[in-house]
């Protein structure tokens, strides 16, 4: 292959890697127009929710009745062999690093896809798997923030996180239940944080 062609192929592969990570498609995230598909910064500087200008802009409020099935879906191509994901909630509408996140659903292995490879690498690819979750009764009624977090199986030790606005209804309004839920798992951020093992589907210590 001509050297110029080799160089072009390398650049194309790097572009695909940089632009092919996964983003949450459903529920509709905050700040859709500014949301990129990279993992969180390893320094933790953009935790939570990929802090940026317009991070909490609402294009769609996701209405969710408790105990009703909801769809978790993604777009992108670099699925890194899948991995493990969590769906968590904070009662804050504009979360900060001090917000409390509680897990409502964990997926151990096969998330966002049950495959050892990647998809096409197209940022708009919707070929990954979809999952079902629900808001448990006991999460109080109101407008809050939902987070999808993902620990990839293959590749650099990373943490992905997208956030979405939700409007919860039909609850028994008992915050004590929410407080009893397990905390969202956080890893692979600052150097002194714990790191998930490579080539394994991480098993959350308290999946809920």
User: How many helical elements?
Assistant: 2
Strand order of the largest sheet: 2-8-7-4-5
Q: How far apart lie the N and C ends?
A: 53 Å
**Number of discrete domains:** 1
> How large, in whole angstroms, is the Cα Rg?
17 Å
Largest sheet: 5 strands, mixed
Helix proportion range: 10-25%
What's the architecture in CATH terms?
A: Distorted Sandwich
β-strand amount = 25-35%
CA-based shape: globular
Low-confidence stretches: 1-20, 118-127
The CATH class name reads: Mainly Beta
Average pLDDT, rounded to a whole number, is: 85
| Class by SSE composition | alpha+beta
* CATH fold-level topology: Coagulation Factor XIII, Chain A, domain 1
**Number of DSSP strand runs:** 8
Element-level helix/strand string: HEEEEEEEEH
Plain-language structure description:
With 208 residues, the protein is an alpha+beta fold. The chain has one domain: Coagulation Factor XIII, Chain A, domain 1 (Distorted Sandwich), CATH 2.70.50. It contains 2 helices and 8 strands, in the order αββββββββα. A 5-stranded mixed beta sheet has the order 2-8-7-4-5. Strands 1-3-6 form a 3-stranded antiparallel beta sheet, with no helix packed on it. The longest helix has 17 residues, at 3-19. The termini are far apart. It comes from Lineolata rhizophorae. Keywords: Signal. Residues 1-20 form the signal peptide. This is Lytic polysaccharide monooxygenase.
